[in-house]
């Protein structure tokens, strides 16, 4: 399936805003930019994607865990980086590469989520195999609110998983929802006390790591196959429109409003 996606390799960008640790066959990838609510920059996406390639190439790694802290998973894309637009074709951008790698990883991916899980902080979870969320989690996909459009395959996966109207509500109104809501919708496996989320996720990782590895890889490949070409096409279509929307006056107003700590005013747009 990775061939279908034709993913490019990245350069050697190193950032301490994403920390990785390999232990007991588990590669833990920690988003570590708490002063900015773990907002993700281009270099951080590169590091997040590199972890998947590292796991793919290291037979000793049997599971990947994405995590943040007890208070914060990620506030999504760095809003400052948005103003610079997307550097190049979507699949060649750090975020595009990361999302395509997630969708095609041959190793299982688990997420431990607490606090804000905004934008890609929610959509990246659609490519995880198991997700554990603290009862302090606030999921949100405020793409339309920012004058943008869905990404990460969410416009394809959410309608088929949740039904059209629930997907449209989450993507058009972009409201926040709780871990209990996410559990009800089948987007996560369990709601935890925030201090226990990562431990619970690590227990799941340990169980995955103890399973026969080739059988787990085959299972992930089959679970992913349902998407295949269609998922890649959706991600690329989303990426193209997203790049266009980043240049829109609607997005400019939304970002300006965020920096000025006020509500955006879309009343003059047609
Ligand atoms: N990009 C860049 N900086 C961000 C950020 C982002 N996505 N999210 C938060 N920050 C910054 C804030 O600007 C703030 O910086 P400051 O201290 O210089 O003012 C700092 O991180 C702390 O964030 P703050 O908004 O004060 O925290 P909060 O707990 O009140 O709210 C959020 C947390 C996540 C609800 C809120 O920060 C938010 O809505 N962020 C934007 C999320 C977003 O739209 N992401 C893009 C999705 S496509």
Report a brief summary of the structure:
By secondary structure, the protein is α/β, with parallel strands linked by helices. 46% of the residues lie in helices and 14% in strands.
Structural notes for this entry:
By secondary structure, the protein is an alpha/beta fold. Helix content is about 45%, strand content about 15%. It has helices spanning about 1-5, 40-55, 80-85, 95-105, 120-125, 155-160, 165-175, 180-185, 195-210, 215-225, 230-245, 250-260, and strands at about 20-25, 25-30, 65, 110-115, 115-120, 130-135, 140, 175-180, 190. The strands form two sheets. The chain has a six-stranded mixed beta sheet with strand order 1-2-3-4-6-9, with helices on both faces. Strands 5-7-8 form a three-stranded mixed beta sheet. Strand 2, helix 2 (about 40-55) and strand 3 form a beta-alpha-beta unit. The longest helix has 18 residues, at about 230-245. The protein is globular, with a radius of gyration of 18 Å. The chain starts with a helix and ends in an 11-residue tail after the last helix. The mean pLDDT is about 95. The structure holds coenzyme A. Coenzyme A (COA) binds near residues 75, 79, 80 and 143. Coenzyme A binds near residues 77, 78 and 116.
Topology readout:
Elements: H1 2-5, E1 18-23, E2 26-31, H2 42-57, E3 63-67, H3 79-83, H4 94-104, E4 109-113, E5 116-118, H5 120-123, E6 130-134, E7 138-140, H6 154-162, H7 164-173, E8 177-178, H8 179-184, E9 190-192, H9 194-210, H10 213-225, H11 228-245, H12 249-259
Parallel strand pairs: 2-3, 3-4, 4-6, 5-7, 6-9
Antiparallel strand pairs: 1-2, 7-8
